[in-house]
């Protein structure tokens, strides 16, 4: 069984890559600055345009690797709830729903076009039973509260300790929260911190926050021109969307600062080869699992 859920993530050592990059570039002399509110606002609009432009869903692929990285999400005979923050086109929600028979997925995004696309992709990919377990909504937890129907004020205040099974005050929060290539889109560390604290408020004690995002010195980071850098480890793409590249230390500070306990945290270092050019590409992602303390 362990072989089925194993995933390969160590083609090279991240520290070797760091030494290679830092010896080739004088990164210390690059001006470090805070991202402006103008950039953050522009990025939110850019994501709406991005998802509207790709409204047919052809651009997106399901993240079938997700269940190998996070086998907790594939427990087909267990009843649990997942909150997916930054659902995009439903690339993470759909594999979870297809792999399970009882799991419920609440999927949100700051982009209305993204939420519409998730619904459209779900209609195509899921059977009726699976579609009934998907609920989507528009929300940006970095600057607004997650809805009361997901977790009401009373349940949050008691940390879900006094909820009566006889009273349907809300859905009772989430057992898992997934942040898959979503946190980097915010780029501003204060926004990230706000989002994580809001997510923790609806995560049940003992629940887990599952994270995968761009890692420091990933190939895409190194290919950005200097004039597209808008803050430390943060770059603006030509379409206006932002991308932040995480170190493990930055992830640890953000998540433990929100009150979570570290379970797993590592760089995934994968070497890919462009089939056309035969050029090797060193991809770096950060993989992490954090747990909300269970005080019972």
Care to describe what's here?
- It is globular and about 60 Å long.
- The longest helix is centred in the N-terminal third of the chain and has 17 residues, at 37-53.
- The strands form 2 sheets. Strands 3-2-1-4-5-10-9 form a 7-stranded mixed beta sheet.
- 32% of the residues lie in helices and 23% in strands.
- The chain starts with a helix and ends in a 5-residue tail after the last strand.
- It has 296 residues and is α/β, with parallel strands linked by helices.
- Mean pLDDT is 86; it is low at 1-5 and 27-32.
- A hairpin with a 2-residue loop joins strand 6 (229-231) and strand 7 (234-236).
- It has one domain: Rossmann fold.
- It is built from 11 helices and 10 strands.
- It is an enzyme of class 2 (transferase).
Strand and helix map with partners:
Elements: H1 2-5, H2 14-24, H3 37-53, H4 66-69, E1 81-85, H5 93-99, E2 104-109, H6 112-125, H7 128-131, E3 134-138, H8 153-157, E4 174-180, H9 189-202, E5 203-214, H10 219-223, E6 229-231, E7 234-236, E8 242-244, H11 248-257, E9 261-273, E10 280-291
Helix pairs in contact: 3-6
Family: Belongs to the methyltransferase superfamily. METL family.
Keywords: Methyltransferase, Transferase
Protein name: tRNA N(3)-methylcytidine methyltransferase
Order of helices and strands: HHHHEHEHHEHEHEHEEEHEE
In terms of DSSP E residues, the strand content is: 15-25%
**What top-tier CATH class fits best?**
Alpha Beta
| Radius of gyration, CA atoms, in whole angstroms | 19 Å
* Oligomeric grouping of the chains: single chain
Task: Output the CATH homologous superfamily.
Answer: Vaccinia Virus protein VP39
**What general outline do the C-alpha atoms trace?**
globular
CATH architecture: 3-Layer(aba) Sandwich
- Across the major sheet, the strand order is 3-2-1-4-5-10-9
Counted up, domains total 1
Q: Could you give a short account of the major beta sheet? A: 7 strands, mixed
Ranges where pLDDT stays below 50 over 5 or more residues in a row are 1-5, 27-32
Taking the alpha carbons of the first and last residues, their distance comes to 31 Å
For the secondary structure, the number of strands is 10
CATH-derived topology: Rossmann fold
Helical segment count: 11
Average of the residue pLDDT scores: 86
Keywords: Methyltransferase, Transferase
Organism: Selaginella moellendorffii (Spikemoss)
Family: Belongs to the methyltransferase superfamily. METL family.
EC number: 2.1.1.-
